[in-house]
Amino acid sequence: MRMRYLTTAQDIGELGFIKSLCEANGIVCVFQDEHVSSLYPGVLDLCCQVMVDESDWERAKTLISRLRLPIREVAPSP
């Protein structure tokens, strides 16, 4: 299994969401530096890197890109 870098989680919440999203779609993922950010809270350079199998990379990238779509506000109906 050859692993490929997918993304870097910005915080523990995003990491949990990415992990859940990958597992729900049958994508095996590995986390580098998963616990380092808890040792040094607020240091963004130490965030966790998410790695996936090279054969799942394209599908995982699509899922993650949907996760990070900008949120737009919708005006309430009159």
Automatic annotation (TrEMBL):
Q: Which Gene3D superfamilies match?
A: UreE, C-terminal domain
Name the species this protein comes from.
Nitrospira lenta
Its ancestry begins with: Bacteria, Pseudomonadati, Nitrospirota, Nitrospiria, Nitrospirales
Instruction: Name the source's superkingdom.
Output: Bacteria
The name this protein carries in UniProt is DUF2007 domain-containing protein
Q: Name one Pfam family in it.
A: DUF2007
Tell me where in this chain the DUF2007 domain is found. 3-67
